[in-house]
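Sample A.
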Amino acid sequence: MGIPKYIVAGPSEMLAITGNGISEILLKKKHFLWPLQKCTRLDISPVNYSFEVQAMSAEKLPFFLPAVFTIGPKVLDEANYESLIKYAKLVSNTDKESTHIKDLVKGVIEGETRVLAASMTMEQIFKGTKEFKQEVFDKVQLELNQFGLYIYNANVKQLVDVPGHEYFSYLGQKTQMEAANQAKIDVAEAKKKGEIGAKLRDGETKQNAAKIDAETFIISTRRQGEGKKEEVRVRTEVEIFENQREAEVVEAIAVLAKKKAGWSQTARLAEVEAEKAVEIREAELQMEVEKKKAFAETAKLKAELLSKANVEYDIKVQEANSELYKRQKDAEAALFESQKKAEAQKANADAELYSRQQTANSELYTKQKEAEGLAAVGKAQTVYLGSLLKELNHNYSALRDYLMINNGIYQEIANINAQAVNGMQPKISIWSGADGGQSKGEGGSGLNDVAGVYRMLPPLLQTVHEQTGMNPPAWLGTLPDKSK
C-alpha cells in the first residue's frame, strides 16, 4: 500500500474526497488522502452576480430591474453538509472558467422575477419595492436550495425604463411640473394676502368707527321698539293659546300627507338616480377640468384687478353699510309681525287637526267594537257546533238534521212547497191525529195526546221524503223499505 498524504483546505475551501472507502462524497477541512482516493478543492466563498432583468408588469409595461445577488454554497456546520454535497455535485463536472453556475443562477433569478412582475401592476411594484424585493428573494432561494446555494445578500436597484417605454421618466416629469406649479401658486397667494391685508386694516378702522355710531342709534331705537313688541306679544299669545288645540289636528294631517308624498318621491327618485349616476359622474369630471382652467385664468385676472377693486370696494362698503342698517331695521319690524301672524295660523291649524283626529279615533273605536262583537259571535258558534258534533260522535248527518229541525227548516220547506204547488195537483197525504177510539182504555187524556203525536210522525216523515228526498235522522226513526 502507498503512503497516505495529509492535505489541508484553505480558509475559504472545503475538501471533497471520493474513492476507496467512501460511499458518496466526504467533505473535510483536513484529511489523510489514501491511495485510490481523489480530492477536489471546493471554493465556498460567496460570489457577486450582477444582472439587469427585463420584465413586464400586469399592464404589459416593460422595465429593467438591475440587481446584485451575493450567492455561495450553504455551509452550516461540520455535522450538516447536505447542501454543500449538492453544491459539490454541481461543480464536479465544470472547470474553473465555466459559466455554468452563473447561467444557472441568472436563469432562476430572471424566471422568478418575470413571473412575480407579471402578477403585479407597475404602481404596486414601484411603491412596494421592499416587499417586491423580499418576495423575489424568497422565491429564488427556494429554487437554489436544490443546488445547495444560499443567497447571502440581495440588492435591487432602482427600476429603469426600457427604451421606447419611458414610464418612469414621464412619471418624474409629471411630479416636477406639479411641484413647480404649486410653488407658483403659493407665491401668488402670499402676494395676494399681503395686499388684501393692508386694505383690510384700513377698512376695519373706518368700519369700527361707523359701527360705534350705529350701535348708539340702535340702542335708543331698540328701547322704543321693545314696548311695542311686548304689547303685540301679549295679544298674540292669547290668540295662540285659544287656537293651539285646533291647529294640532291640522298639523297631524299635514304630517301624514307629507310622509306619503315623501315615500312616493323617494321611490321615483331612486329610479331617476340610478339612471343619472353615470351622467353625473361624467359631468363632475368635466367640471374638474374646467375648474382647473378657470382657476389659472382667475388668478391672473385677480392680480390685475385687485388694486382697483379694493379702492372701489372701500367706498361702496361705507355706502352699503349705511343702507344696510336702515334696511335691517325695516326688515326686523316686518319679520316680527310676520312671525306672529304665522304663529297664530299655526295655532288655528293645530286646533283643527286635533278636532279631526278625535272624530277619526271615535269612528275607529266603533268599528273595532263591532268587529270584536262579530268575532265573539263567530267564536261562540264554533264552540257550540263543536260541542254538538262531539256529543253526536262526529256524525255530520245527524248534526245537519238537528240544525235543520232546530232552525225550522222543515217548516219553511213545507211553506215553500205549499206556495210552489198552489194551483197544481200534487200528491197530498192526509192523516188524522185521532186514535179512532183505540185508546179508550189507556189511562187518561194525557197519554192519548202523546200517542196521537207518535202516530203522526210516520206519515209526516214519509211525506217529507217523497217531496224532498231527505231521510229522517237515525235517532228519530226510519222509513219502511218498499223493495222488500
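Sample B, a different protein:
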Amino acid sequence: MYSTLFFIHSWWAYLVLLILVIAAVNSLIGFFTKKEYGANDFRISLFTLIVSHIQLLIGIVLYIVGILQNAKYFSAFSNLGMGEIMKDSTLRLYLVEHPLMMILAVVFVTIGYSRHKKKLTSHPKFKSLAIFYTLGLVFLLSRIPWSAWF
C-alpha cells in the first residue's frame, strides 16, 4: 500500500506544481494588467485549490501509512528519535520540513482562494490570488525533495 501511495503522491506532485505555477502566473498577469476576472480565471483558481487539497490528503495518508508500516525513512522515528532526525538533513527534509511546508503551501492556496471569493471587483480578486498563490508556490518550491525528482 505504501508504494502505491508513494507513486501516486510523487506523480500527482507534478500536476500540483504545474497548475500552481499556471495559477500564480495567471493571477500576477491579471493583477498587473488589470484585466477583468473571468470564468477561466475562476476555473484555474478552483482547480488549483482542488488539486492541492487532493495532494495534501494523499500526503497525510502516505505519512500515516509510512509510520504504521515502518517504511524507509519512517523507521527513524522508532530507531533514532526526534533529536537524531533533526541532526540529519535528509531525514529532517522528508519527515519534518517537507510535510510542514507543504501544509503551509496548501494553507496559503486556501486563504487566497477564500479571500478572492469575497472581493467584488477584478483587481482585488487578482491581488488576493497573486499574493497567496505565489506564497504557496514559494513554500512548495522551497521543500520539494529535488534529488528524488530527477
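Observation for Sample B: DSSP finds seven helices and no strands in the chain.
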